[in-house]
């Protein structure tokens, strides 16, 4: 059957097998498009379809999928993110990690809606994709190299205008939270995608494209992009993001009870005013943006003091100002900038790295790890110098770094002696800079998220920033439905390929009109249809985890949140009421309350009968 | 008077005044060309003509001149070096520093045989030269930045295909041995040109050229380039340089009594076999070359261990393998590579930095500097870790680094307590990796060189490598004439713009024919004429120093060489017989033996009457 022409999409998916050094090109099917839109949706569906259950994330049977959406590289702003989907070595779950920069647009221009990499190369390899020409090239000469030097060398030997994703030494050494880097300073950081690449001996994917996807209604689309820009310029968020990106909210969020301090003990942070936007702004020397994004939220900071003087590097974002700042009791901005750069060049997720280091700091404070067990480093709160060493040790798996490289959940098991009390993770993913006790629907998302404790899966603007309307963050009533709503909405935007920072400026109505103008697919005009797709994707991700054995018991958070009340305002006295919140959430989701597993009815309602059937075969579908 | 068309040359000199933000373009005159050829010759002559005597090298009255030769960017190999001429803040003498990479060719293509920068900018500035369009641009955003990040940012905001020279934090902080960097890893390292730029608030010169100099006889020139390549390929030197550059000779030179150890104490070096070519070769992951150079002597090494793992950086050259190796008793190759990179990114001459650090190590060993005086660092021979800190401290002028940043001669004065015995310099320039006791004509050049103890001013292949014929390195007979001959020959090659590494493969006869085919200037066909020019340039450089007050007393070397016999073979028992050698040299030079000043007769013979007259006016010309 010949399918109708696909507008907006590249129309092809590249399937590259490292074991055999062969590849094939698959048509992007209209069914896939209609049911999953693209980007995150494609990743989730392809993983469900092709991934064998129960495999070790480091086995050659794991897959790593890079996918973009129908609005990538077609002239819209903030819509060219690439999504990386794989089974995470950190969580054992389905995972989606998101990267910015220019790689996503370039793979679309090269003709691919997705690049699927399977198998394992015999020796270090990189994939060189020039439109239809695919090469498996030797990467031995850059194996072991930091990401910046790798990038320089690979672009020199391919095409200086090509774009790439690469891993650093951390990915090669299968550090479970190794990142995938692009454009030097951008990361698809979370979940260990870099380690999956490393386990496959895949150092990089370099792409150069010369094509351009055709749009269904170019003229209309251009008007909508103007409308998008107009909305941007009228919105105060746009201007604050342009001036300082996510770093602009650090001080504010601290006052809201987030930006947790001292490994989530949540003590007052001395000198926290160093994170005020007016202080941070003094470090900016240059701005930049991802592919075609008017937000221009890149801000290069210049350091001038100490052992890290003279560096100009993209600023630490909100999360990194925290993961090498608040969570360690540190407010030395230049030191944080240096730690950020070290993570980028070694290829480490800054959130997991910082939380793993905070875990070590607290174990050292509590006497659970002795000085000799932390390789003689003096891990005092507020002092970031030893963290520089720890970053390198983690990336190279040396000494204590070899334990922390496993992530806090596994590290706590290895260390024993009650260490797990201080391992701040959800499903193995280190917790980011939000306190579930200070925003209950947001916390519910951290607890239930299909990729572990991610802040982006259900970033709850209702509770955190009062958008689109203010909801009391401490109450637990109605939070199940609210968490679901935000998760599903987020999923829609991510299936289109939107960056989540500007998305509060783009109503779903506009997103829908853009989708239709780009693709001509009637269904995309209907917002209820989009919600159905969002929920479908969310449920197939959940089903992936169910197939792997995950249930309600895994939707949890560390004891610290469940038992210890927050000691500082405005959340003083709050704990996270896990069980009540979970019940409420599963009901809102139409999932079985006892197991947290989607019911057959829900799956059927979402057009996921084949998923229900497979789960039923495995005996995992709830009865009734 | 309209001068005849100049072939081979760009025909113009750019004169940029930072104080007034104005510039002018001067014609490259036929007289300048005939009398000084280009490159080093232009620098020497222009400095003599335009530099006011007696000024402080850091005053706005100092000049910095970038010049290239007639064979730059016209298709010949290894002839596009750029020469940087200025009054050195390290030595107080005339100075010429030499850089490779692509900058020299680019300034020629932009239309300039030389760029002269004078004055001082009010705030950090860079010069942006696009052919005839000259801009003085704000560099505040990159002031304080390391060289690599500066390069990335400036090329992004000008033209990605432009070439630049830049300084790092060391130059800005007027470290007296700050380098000028180009193409990230290439340096015009010696003499503190970077500090002169820094004192002028000049962060960089960025150049993009679209022109091409016309040749007198293009067809003939192309044949000569083929002849050049043919000679290259037939020569074993070519192949050893291609395989490992100057690093290939480290182990050999150690066995010849060079590659001095432990701040020139010349003790045996344990594990010296780590410097054997076959070991070094295992680190190479990539090669490269300066503009149009078949030598391709760039070799990028990859490190894989310790705190400096994952770096891919151009290899430490012979001198740097020594200045962070032998002279500190270090044989940890990966640590040396890291120190080399630190110097490149902070903008420090690796030779002076290493020797300054060795000076601190020996003072620490002797108890002249206490541990607290070296900021608590444990400066044990063989341990390079503290040197990483010292490199940063020197660049940033922190603590002991602020003293070492003055160079060993001034540092010894500041420290006192007999420190000068261990300050290894000639005229203030830190001594490179040769032992004057192990090669007397070479040593004579170190002692008499117009730029201080440089190994390149009279690199004596007769003594060191037996080329073009073997001369006993220990005898002192005839060494004055030999030193003169090598110095003058070197000057000819450098006035043409040749790189000195491949020049032993290019007979002067071929160089002369290339010069003629390129320029059509009859005189250049005559090798005796070229020798006259070489000697002329050498003498005008000397006269510059005489004008500044330098005499025979300054042509000296540290006591260690004059009094302490070498303890290891093959030079065991040798000292450097300074006085006898100097007498012999001055006589060979036709200079006054008492003062070491060129006689009026010699200057007249060289067509330098105007120089003789000026020196006579100052009462500095020897009588008789």
Explain how this protein is built:
The structure is a homodimer of 624-residue chains. In chain A, 39% of the residues lie in helices and 13% in strands. Chain A is globular. In chain A, a hairpin with a 4-residue loop joins strand 1 and strand 2. Chain A has a 6-stranded mixed β-sheet with strand order 2-1-6-3-4-5. A 6-stranded mixed β-sheet of chain A has the order 8-7-12-9-10-11. Chain A has a 3-stranded antiparallel β-sheet with strand order 13-14-15. The first copy, chain A, folds into 3 domains: 12-208, Aldehyde Ferredoxin Oxidoreductase,  A, domain 1 (4-Layer Sandwich); 247-423, Aldehyde Ferredoxin Oxidoreductase Protein, subunit A, domain 2 (Orthogonal Bundle); 436-617, Aldehyde Ferredoxin Oxidoreductase Protein, subunit A, domain 3 (Orthogonal Bundle). The two termini of chain A are 39 Å apart. Chain A is an alpha+beta fold and 624 residues long. The interface between A and B is medium-sized, with 29 and 29 residues.
């Amino acid at each position: 059957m010949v399918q109708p022409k696909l507008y907006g999409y590249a129309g092809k998916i590249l399937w590259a097998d490292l074991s055999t050094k062969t590849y094939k090109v698959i048509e992007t099917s209209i069914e896939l498009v209609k049911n999953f839109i693209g980007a995150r949706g494609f990743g989730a569906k392809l993983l469900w379809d092709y991934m064998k259950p129960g495999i070790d994330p480091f086995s050659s049977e794991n897959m790593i999928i890079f996918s973009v959406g129908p609005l990538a590289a077609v002239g819209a702003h903030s819509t060219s993110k690439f999504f990386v989907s794989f089974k995470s070595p950190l969580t054992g779950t389905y995972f989606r990690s998101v990267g910015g920069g220019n790689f996503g647009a370039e793979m679309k221009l090269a003709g691919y809606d997705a690049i699927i990499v399977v198998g394992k190369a015999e020796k270090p390899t990189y994939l060189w994709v020039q439109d239809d020409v695919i090469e498996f090239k030797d990467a031995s000469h850059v194996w072991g190299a930091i990401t910046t030097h790798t990038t320089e060398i690979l672009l020199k030997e391919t095409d200086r205008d090509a774009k790439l994703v690469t891993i650093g030494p951390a990915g090669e050494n299968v550090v479970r939270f190794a990142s995938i880097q692009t454009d030097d300073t951008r990361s698809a950081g979370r979940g260990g995608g870099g380690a999956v690449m490393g386990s496959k001996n895949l150092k990089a994917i370099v792409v150069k494209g010369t094509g351009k996807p055709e749009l269904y209604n170019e003229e209309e689309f251009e008007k909508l992009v103007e409308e998008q820009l107009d909305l941007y310029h009228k919105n105060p968020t746009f201007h604050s993001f342009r001036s300082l990106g996510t770093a602009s909210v650090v001080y504010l969020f601290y006052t809201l009870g987030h930006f947790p301090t001292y490994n989530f003990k949540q003590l007052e942070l001395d000198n926290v005013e160093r994170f005020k936007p007016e202080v941070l702004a003094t470090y900016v020397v240059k701005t930049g943006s991802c592919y075609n994004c008017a937000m221009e939220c890149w801000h290069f900071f210049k350091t001038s003091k100490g052992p890290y003087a003279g560096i100009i590097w993209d600023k630490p974002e909100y999360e990194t100002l925290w993961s090498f700042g608040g969570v360690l009791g540190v407010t030395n901005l230049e030191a944080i900038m240096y730690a950020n750069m070290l993570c980028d060049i070694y290829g480490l997720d800054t959130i997991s790295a910082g939380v793993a280091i905070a875990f070590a700091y607290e174990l050292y404070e509590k006497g659970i790890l002795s000085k000799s067990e932390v390789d003689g480093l003096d891990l005092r709160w507020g002092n970031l110098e030893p963290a520089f060493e720890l970053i390198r040790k983690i990336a190279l798996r040396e000494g204590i770094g070899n334990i922390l490289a496993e992530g806090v959940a596994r590290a706590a098991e290895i260390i024993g002696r009650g260490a797990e009390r201080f391992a701040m993770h959800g499903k193995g993913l280190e917790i980011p800079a939000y306190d579930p006790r200070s925003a209950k629907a947001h916390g519910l998302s951290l607890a239930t998220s299909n990729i572990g404790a991610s802040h982006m899966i259900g970033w709850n603007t209702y509770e955190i920033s009062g958008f689109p309307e203010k909801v009391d963050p401490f109450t637990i009533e109605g939070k199940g439905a609210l968490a679901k709503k935000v998760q599903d909405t987020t999923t829609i935007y991510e299936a289109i390929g939107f960056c989540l920072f500007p998305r509060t400026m783009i109503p779903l109505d506009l997103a829908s009109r853009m989708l239709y103008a780009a693709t001509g697919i009637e269904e995309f005009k209907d917002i209820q249809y989009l919600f159905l797709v969002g929920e479908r994707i969310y449920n197939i991700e959940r089903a992936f985890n169910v197939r792997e054995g995950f249930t309600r018991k895994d939707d949890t958070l560390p004891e610290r949140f469940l038992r210890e009340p927050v000691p500082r305002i405005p959340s003083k006295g709050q704990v996270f009421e896990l069980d009540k919140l979970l019940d409420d959430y599963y009901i809102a989701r139409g999932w079985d309350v006892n197991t947290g597993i989607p019911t057959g009815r829900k799956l059927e309602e979402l057009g996921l009968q084949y998923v229900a059937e497979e789960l039923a075969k495995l005996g995992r579908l709830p009865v009734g």
